[in-house]
Amino acid sequence: MESVIFVGNKAPIKYATAIVTEFEKGPSEVMVKARGRSISTAVDACQISMNKFLEGVEVKDIKIFTEELEDRNVSAIEILLGKVGES
């Protein structure tokens, strides 16, 4: 998958804009990835982009898991957004 957005410390609206920009480039799916404290920002960005800017886009899949980083475990999430009716 080439359309991946990594969420960090910026405001959710910045990532929502990035999601909208990716969909405008033409792909039918965009993956949003985040770890740790950025998970809530990723969820907010997805909700903002779907509810305010994009029509016909839904959550296709959500994966939650734990990654081991520098001898500690960090929660992570992958949210797959896709156009309705396309797989």
List keywords for this structure.
single chain, alpha+beta, 4 strands, 40% strand, Translation Initiation Factor IF3
Description:
This protein is 32% helix and 40% strand. By secondary structure, it is an alpha+beta fold. It has one domain: 2-Layer Sandwich (Translation Initiation Factor IF3). A four-stranded mixed β-sheet has the order 1-2-4-3, covered by helices on one side. A hairpin with a 2-residue loop joins strand 3 and strand 4. The protein is globular and about 40 Å long.
Offer a quick outline of the entry:
The protein has 87 residues and is of the alpha+beta class.
* Low-pLDDT runs: none
**Approximate shape:** globular
Q: Per CATH, which architecture? A: 2-Layer Sandwich
CATH class: Alpha Beta
| Contiguous helical run count | 2
Strand content: 35-45%
* Helicity level: 25-40%
**Count of distinct structural domains:** 1
List the helices and strands and how they pair.
Elements: E1 4-6, H1 12-24, E2 29-35, H2 39-53, E3 57-69, E4 72-83
Parallel strand pairs: 1-2
Antiparallel strand pairs: 2-4, 3-4
Helix pairs in contact: 1-2
